[in-house]
Amino acid sequence: MRKWWPLSAVCAGSFLFLLDTTVVTVALPRIGADLTASVGQLQWVPDVYTLVLAVLMLAAGSLADRVGLRRVFLGGLAVFGLASLACGLAPDIGTLIAARGVQAIGGAALAVTGFALLAASYDGRARGTAISVFFAVSGLGAAAGPVVGGMLTEYCGWAAIFFVNVPLAVLTGLFALRALPRDTPARRSRFDVAGAVWFALFAAALVHGLTLGGSGPVAVAALVVSAIALAGFVIVERRRAEPLLELGLFRDGGFTALVACAAASTLTFAALVYVSLWLGRSHSPVTAGLVMAPLAVASFLTSTFLGKALHRFPPRVLLGSGVLLGAAGCLLQWAVGIAAGLAVTGIGVGIAGPATGAAIAAAAPPGRAGMAAGILTTTRQFGQTLGVAVLGIAYQAGGLAPVYVVAALCGGVTGLLALLPRKQAAVPV
């Protein structure tokens, strides 16, 4: 059993991080009432978390490759726990937003090191099993956020959604000290500071522009800055011997398709934002969370039992099938019912997640597990941010129906493209 201790520690840390990406959704009305916050201020409670994650994930992965995965994981837990305490004690909305930003710094470290630790700790069939369980717990954490948040908010107050993280972070840290293998000697290479700065500027400007809906002078200016920063990042990375991001990976059409599938699979969670808003009009926080529970259950069960299948099917088949099922689930939510559709979507998420993780882990250059994890988590974060922005326009135009149609259309096209066979791909997508 000790063989699976690293998996247990990583899953506990990742569950905490992902739970907090969605747990605040149903608590926002209570937070606004207690802290006398405007709608615009409340929007920054989840948005600042997303922004900081997008900015730091790739850099955190690269830093972990140099400093050590275990050190960065434990440091992330400490920052996350302390910031959660500050969130719960926040006397005003400004303090809460700032504390959420710091919380996301710890979350970024947990996000990239968790997956990288598994890729480095296991191989062969054991790696497939570990990755499947990891994505099962990750999906459960993200999808269970509204349920947990609803219960804690209704019965204990909104601050409880943050206070509960503190003892859990401490216990996870103590267990991780014994469970995780000690870091190997750090790589003697300089951290790509210039690349990190350019990427941070690109990510911050892009996420801010998308959060504003992509319209208006401020949003347009932010998107222009992001394009310029991306160009600067590419120029810098092409000149680095050990860059923050190996751009050569994207010359392979299979790897590019893999990244596109990772982004498309996040549309499910982007749609959940608007499903929560719609349910919140006529349901209590607990009821709204329970309606969305089938997604968490289906995703958890599917990922848990998928480990052995990762070696039996080409990753592109699993990826394409998972994304297509997610798209079909969106249509079923519209045509049949939210709970039934979310169950099908959960099966798709449970298939696509582990397949994506296994393929990216296989594609990682030697000693760059952190970079591979950074690519995966950053792609998913950008995909969800873009999804929230695009689906927000659809929601304002006609409610949930156009949200489902857009999500299903994007997922369907991406899933079908992933299923197309490719020759001589470095990553067998």
Report on this structure.
α12 crosses α17 (369-398). It is built from 18 helices and no strands. The protein has two domains: 2-192 and 240-419, Up-down Bundle (Growth Hormone, Chain: A); 193-239. It starts with a helix and ends in a 10-residue tail after the last helix. It is mainly alpha-helical. It is globular and about 55 Å long.
What would the keywords be for this entry?
Growth Hormone, Chain: A; 2 domains; disordered C terminus; 429 residues; mainly alpha
The separation of the N and C termini measures 33 Å
Number of helices: 18
Please give the largest β-sheet: none
Mind telling me the C-alpha Rg?
20 Å
Number of extended strands? 0
- Give the fraction of residues assigned to helices: over 70%
Q: Tell me what portion of residues adopts beta-strand conformation.
A: under 5%
- What is the H-and-E element order? HHHHHHHHHHHHHHHHHH
Q: Can you tell me the CATH topology of the largest domain?
A: Growth Hormone, Chain: A
Which residues form runs of ≥5 with pLDDT under 50?
A: 424-429
Q: Supply the CATH superfamily name of the largest domain.
A: MFS general substrate transporter like domains
In the CATH scheme, the class of the largest domain would be: Mainly Alpha
Quickly count the domains. Answer: 2
- Coarse shape: globular
How confident overall, as mean pLDDT? 82
CATH architecture of the largest domain: Up-down Bundle
Secondary-structure-based class equals mainly alpha
